[in-house]
Amino acid sequence: MSKPLLFNAFLMNTASHIHHGQWRHPEARQHEFNDVNLWIELAKTLEEGLFDAMFFADVTGLYGPADGQYVDNVREGLQIPSNDPAVLLGALAVATKDIGLAYTSNVMQNHRSF
């Protein structure tokens, strides 16, 4: 028996994920990444398109070149600033009905001593 194909949207609550400067495109809405209505609208669109889930990646720190030069990342808004996706998922859960919501959470957020 074959397994069903599941469709998940990979997202980050940031102005720009991997494509440098895409937030500057005239039709881009990444500059609205702090507006919960942008994410609710996207969640409803994905739900209507029969996506199975939205997956938000958390980011602590910056991605950058191995030699440690992060100037381009900051200038082009590459994953900076970035918000904690856990805060967003509550609003999306209230606004949607049939789409899964998932996120990663950095272990640095665990303040428990081991």
Overview of the molecule:
The protein has 3 helices and 3 strands; from the N terminus they run βαβααβ. The chain is of the alpha/beta class and 114 residues long. Strands 1-2-3 form a 3-stranded parallel beta sheet, with helices on one face. Helix 1 (36-48) crosses helix 3. The protein starts with 7 loop residues before the first strand and ends in an 11-residue tail after the last strand. The protein has a domain at 7-14 and 26-60 and 81-114.
How do you describe this structure in short?
The protein is of the alpha/beta class and about 110 residues long. Helices cover about 25% and strands about 10% of the residues.
Shape: globular
| Share of residues in helices | 25-40%
* Average pLDDT reading: 82
Instruction: Tell me the total number of β-strands.
Output: 3
Biggest pleated sheet: 3 strands, parallel
> What is the C-alpha radius of gyration, as a whole number of Å?
16 Å
SSE class: alpha/beta
Q: pLDDT under 50 segments (min length 5)?
A: none
Features:
3 helices; alpha/beta; three-stranded parallel beta sheet; 114 residues; 3 strands
Give me the secondary-structure topology.
Layout: E1 8-11, H1 36-48, E2 53-56, H2 71-75, H3 85-95, E3 100-103
